[in-house]
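About this split. The held-out portion is used to measure sequence recovery: a designer receives only the structure tokens and must propose an amino acid at every position. Recovery is the fraction of positions where the proposal matches the reference. Here is one held-out target exactly as it appears in the evaluation file.
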């Protein structure tokens, strides 16, 4: 009986290898690639100095009293070593997967060789069976040797893939991303590699989530913390000056509420986590300066605390846009990511035209978003826990303004806001605005001069009490007077 060894690739084997030739990292084990437990333990002192130890070692008691003294350059050098170690682990896992076809080829060739030797031992080298066995082994060796060549080429010239940069980003920033998100992110990496139909959705999730480095060390404050109260006093002065030209019927309550909340926000930016401002509801008709005030406040922060605060002007149209869901990040989550990507310490958020607060299909979502706890954000975008609740994300300081011309009807929701009845502008402020619009108009004659008395008379005659009405009519008025 002749013994011959002939290995031919099956259809499924061929398909699998064809797919891997397109993406040699398709079978990468991301749990191994991103398991940085040993690295974190090795650089525990660095984790403490980077303030991400409470994230990486969530249940461990960290002793900080024995930390060696290191200057900024030394810390930077150690952090570079840590980053290189994380990248090296990712690269080792990549190389292990890329070399898998070569290892399989060596295994197959070893089996073929053993089978051939056994055949020769039984029937003899010069026999027909032995000759066929040797010939089959040589043919299969040539065929299987492609695996070794392919692995070598992929090692020498790593194939480009849109996931490569995201893998590197996660490997080097994992310690700054909430630990609860790690398994979810790893799962999405696997989906993106193995499921071409879901790759784009998975990558969108990854591109968004990898920006949520909530444990990234904050930028240094641009001002001495001991002088922070001077910043608060300056903000108080500017708030008083801004509303000096408004007819405040609240006996100063509007200014007081604004001063209290901005002061808490400033102190929270310095790291005083015991303080957080309340949500502020600006109530009043359109066109009286609510948006202008919030934007001006953001400019004041930029002047007094440069590059510290991110400003977000949001328009909300649905409950999913406000709160988010499993496929869409909510408004506060988007604000948080903008803040972190901008490397800011906090955010000023403005939601205008918020009549949706009284919409029946929005009230429940609004209560969950404006829940009073501004230290954490609960979101279902990353899935849910066993009890059905969303994943909690640490939330840096935010000063949140919501504006509308309607009262908040739901009492439970209304109680979570400091409501400010935004005062009406005085006539002189309306006159100044009219002159400003006229001066910057591109359709009015250059150097248009009109006495303030005539503008005031025009305002009173038409009963204009807001900036929006003046902006829509001033050019017509000026043009008519020049005719």
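Reference sequence for scoring:
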């Amino acid at each position: 009986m002749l013994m011959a060894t002939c290995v031919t690739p099956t259809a499924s084997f061929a398909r699998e290898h064809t797919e891997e030739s397109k993406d040699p990292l398709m079978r990468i084990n991301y749990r191994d690639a991103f398991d940085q437990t040993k690295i974190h333990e090795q650089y525990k002192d660095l984790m403490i100095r980077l303030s991400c130890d409470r994230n990486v070692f969530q249940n461990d008691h960290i002793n900080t009293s024995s930390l060696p003294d290191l200057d900024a350059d030394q810390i930077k050098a150690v952090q570079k070593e840590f980053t290189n170690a994380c990248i090296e682990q990712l690269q080792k896992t990549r190389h292990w997967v890329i070399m898998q076809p070569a290892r399989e080829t060596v295994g197959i060739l070893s089996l073929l060789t053993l089978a051939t030797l056994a055949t020769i031992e039984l029937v003899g080298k010069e026999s027909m069976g032995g000759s066929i066995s040797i010939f089959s082994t040589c043919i299969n060796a040539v065929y299987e040797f492609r695996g070794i060549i392919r692995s070598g080429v992929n090692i020498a010239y790593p194939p480009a893939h849109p996931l490569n940069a995201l893998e590197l980003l996660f490997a080097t920033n994992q310690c700054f991303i909430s630990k609860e998100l790690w398994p979810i992110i790893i799962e999405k990496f696997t989906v993106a590699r193995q499921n071409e139909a879901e790759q784009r959705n998975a990558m969108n999730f990854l591109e968004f989530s990898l920006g949520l480095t909530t444990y990234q060390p904050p930028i240094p404050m641009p001002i001495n913390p001991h002088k922070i109260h001077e910043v608060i006093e300056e903000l108080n002065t500017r708030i008083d000056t801004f509303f000096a030209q408004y007819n405040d019927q609240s006996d100063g309550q509007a200014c007081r509420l604004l001063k209290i909340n901005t002061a808490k926000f400033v102190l929270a930016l310095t790291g005083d986590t015991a303080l957080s401002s309340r949500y502020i509801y600006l109530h009043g008709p359109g066109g009286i300066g609510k948006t202008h005030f919030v934007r001006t406040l953001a400019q004041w922060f930029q002047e007094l605390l440069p590059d510290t605060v991110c400003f977000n002007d949001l328009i909300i149209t649905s409950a999913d846009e406000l709160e988010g869901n499993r496929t869409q990040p909510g408004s506060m989550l988007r604000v948080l990511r903008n803040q972190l990507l901008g490397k800011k310490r906090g955010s000023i958020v403005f939601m205008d035209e918020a009549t949706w607060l009284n919409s029946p299909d929005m009230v429940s979502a609004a209560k969950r978003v404006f829940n009073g706890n501004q230290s954490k954000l609960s979101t279902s975008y990353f899935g849910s826990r066993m009890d059905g609740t969303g994943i909690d994300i640490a939330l840096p300081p935010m000063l949140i303004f919501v504006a509308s011309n309607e009262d908040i009807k739901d009492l439970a929701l209304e109680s979570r806001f400091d409501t400010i009845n935004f005062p009406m502008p005085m006539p002189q402020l309306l006159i100044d605005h009219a002159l400003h619009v006229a001066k910057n108009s591109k359709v009015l004659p250059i150097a248009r001069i009109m006495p303030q008395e005539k503008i005031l008379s025009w305002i009173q005659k038409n009963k204009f009490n807001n900036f929006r009405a003046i902006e829509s009519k001033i050019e017509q008025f000026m043009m008519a007077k020049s005719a």
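Annotator remark: The domain at 225-421 is CATH 3.40.50.300 (Rossmann fold).
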